[in-house]
């Protein structure tokens, strides 16, 4: 069957394959948010993606998201995304082959377009990783537009297997904000500060070195004196991870809650008027000195938002921040791929911390005195 060229909508969707849908969504979001200031849009794009958007032979300033395709930034990001997908394919080659065989065993002759939705959902159920239902819905919608533009009526088994294993499956395996792990941040946070009324965070950073900027983050009603801070810290880190980590944001939020609970008279300014931070900012701290303990420890030490519930195994978080992903993780419901990835990281952490003969910290036949229990427990009773 002769294929017709893709229509405008399908062509626009297909263009997401060069950078990934998440990065293109960020590009469109920034150009929409700063529609009256394109310079600010590309400035923020460079900060968020850890890759400076420089003036070159392309359109400057870019008038629309499509103009970024004519920049060195676009070339670099395409190369990084392509390399990431190649590495994932090599790493999960066996999983792809196994999943492909399963899909072909279910649909050796393929299916009609009208049956494609059910075929994808059934095939997704046998994949070695869990695919969220909203991801499946988006994928089916995208493919439906492509098939309509191509006037396709029958999908072969090979095409279905390729769609499911090389597109749907890898859309889940690609880490969220994949670019943050590919490039070093273009900015360096120097100091942080906050006010309790209204609750606001200030981050002083350099970009490029020697050029100081101050970012104000107005928290408004999102932060209250006695509310948990973990979710808000995660949201802030998603947007501003080029400046501070999730753990650092949570430390700041907890300190900001302290200020909110104090009368205005006792929360005086600790900065001078010559400081790059506003004179009303209190409790300024070098960014490097922010607490690097886990969110659970930071929250419990302040009595705010104590986190005791085990967290689900998040493969994307494991790629971005292994330490946070391993904290109190529950692997009981994890799929085979996720379980294998977590075990590999756990083994690496174990090897890093293991003390072997020859290590100065190694002690042969080390014995410890166990303290007497403070209270009796039924587990202390013999079963005889």
What would you say about this model in short?
With 384 residues, this protein is α+β, with helices and mostly antiparallel strands. It has helices at 8-14, 21-33, 38-49, 72-91, 93-106, 116-125, 133-150, 157-173, 230-240, 246-261, 295-302, 315-320, 322-326, 336-353; strands at 111-112, 154-155, 188-196, 199-206, 212-218, 282-286, 311-312, 329-330. It holds the Pfam family CEP19.
Q: Can you describe this structure?
A:
Its main location: cytoplasm. InterPro entries: CEP19. The protein has helices spanning 8-14, 21-33, 38-49, 72-91, 93-106, 116-125, 133-150, 157-173, 230-240, 246-261, 295-302, 315-320, 322-326, 336-353; strands at 111-112, 154-155, 188-196, 199-206, 212-218, 282-286, 311-312, 329-330. By secondary structure, it is α+β, with helices and mostly antiparallel strands. Among the domains are: 15-79, no CATH class; 93-173; 188-261, no CATH class. Strands 5-4-3-6 form a four-stranded antiparallel beta sheet, covered by helices on one side. α5 packs across α8. Mean pLDDT is 79; it is low at 1-14, 267-283, 291-308 and 377-384.
Descriptive terms for the model:
single chain; 384 residues; alpha+beta; four-stranded antiparallel β-sheet; 14 helices; globular; disordered N terminus; disordered C terminus
